[in-house]
Amino acid sequence: MSQFKLGLIVNPVAGLGGSVALKGSDGMAEQALALGAEPMANKRTALALNVLLSYRDQITIYTAAGEMGERIAKELGFSVVCIFQPESAQTTAQDTENSVAKLIAEQVDVLLFAGGDGTARNICHAVDDSFPVLGIPAGCKIHSGVYAVTPSAAGRVVELMVNKELVSLTDADVMDIDESLFREGVVKAKRYGEMQIPSELRYVQAVKAGGKESDELVLQDIAAHVIDQMEDELFVIGSGSTTAFIMEELALDSTLLGVDLVKEQMLVQSDVTEAEIWSAIEHAKAQSHGVKLVITLIGGQGHILGRGNQQLSPRVIRAIGKENIIIVATKTKLQALNQRPLISDSGDPSLDQELAGYLPIVTGYNDQVLYPVASPE
Question: For 176-323, where are the alpha helices, taking DSSP H only?
Fold first, then answer.
């Protein structure tokens, strides 16, 4: 039986800025680490590779040294061929591009990479549009259509290929946004090119939908429903245009792309880090006050966790409790999903499983619908 040649590149610093509210990692890795950020790219890579563990005797992983893929692949027991050695532990975009060139020369069957939109741009710069690639979502920004919806979903697509099942190849856009504007609350996305991906609609995300909700009456009803519940509890307000509208109705400054804390309809703290959220939860509970989390769908994929809100870590979600999560969305947004379930990609599969099933979605004033959250693949 011929070996499946799986190319693997991990951007070790992808997503570092998320939990510490930097809204990106481009050029911010050292600052993020100094603020206590924990590297997650290899952990998310492991979630993808775990799907392939039963195929280890059929797969050889070609990858770069150390944290760029070699370590995690060997830890999981795969046969590994190291094709590139970065010059220093602090890897660069050039290291990514050099690794891609080596993998193309090895004629790998597909290139699996872990990162965000910046990493996708680096990959796109180094490959032509006929070389199959697939992204494991690990960055703060995932606007590109070259990523699977979750790390495990990326593994499922590769599993189909290993089993020689028919997998469609399609061209997907590589998008990125201006991080400096992103940190100021402005989303300005730009198309940088396209790459060919093995596509299964269940597993691969569409390019993010842009634009702002236009039906203000519906948003006002949603906001009124949430505001009526704001008494002495601490409210953690997640990112997104729908939650930002709630803050507008409260006449409070909001962080469109971050997380804010509200108590008794007053702003407690804005643009908080994961550690600051955790501290605020502990303080609230010490005073016998409850905590609620308000989140919405991010982009057009139906993600409720794991896209632009990495500050909401698994420990934060568990401390708040599933019963205290308020998901808000217009019926128009839900209908646009075409019956696809919502996705929790928290980085902790057991938590994602706990959140799976039908959850109430606030769609107006005293108006809720039940909508499914998918089980992790």
Answer: 179-182, 216-227, 241-249, 274-286, 314-320
As a whole number of angstroms, the longest Cα–Cα distance in the chain is 65
Tally: H helices and E strands in the chain: 13, 16
Cβ-contact 262, 244 below 8 angstroms: no
Could you tell me the residue range of the domain that residue 250 belongs to?
Answer: 216-373
pLDDT tens by residue, 118-172 = 899 999 999 987 789 999 998 776 778 899 988 999 999 999 999 988 788 888 8
> Into how many domains does the chain fold?
2
pLDDT (0 to 100) of residue 21: 44
pTM over 0.70: no
Whether 33 is covered by a domain: the verdict is yes
* Alpha-carbon span 37 to 310, nearest angstrom: 11
Provide the residue count of the chain: 377
Q: What is the CATH number of the domain that holds 184?
A: 3.40.50
> How far apart (Å, rounded) are the C-alpha atoms in residues 256 and 269?
14
Taking the C-alpha atoms of residue 20 and residue 105, their distance in angstroms, rounded to an integer, is: 38
Alpha-carbon distance 292 to 319, whole Å? 10
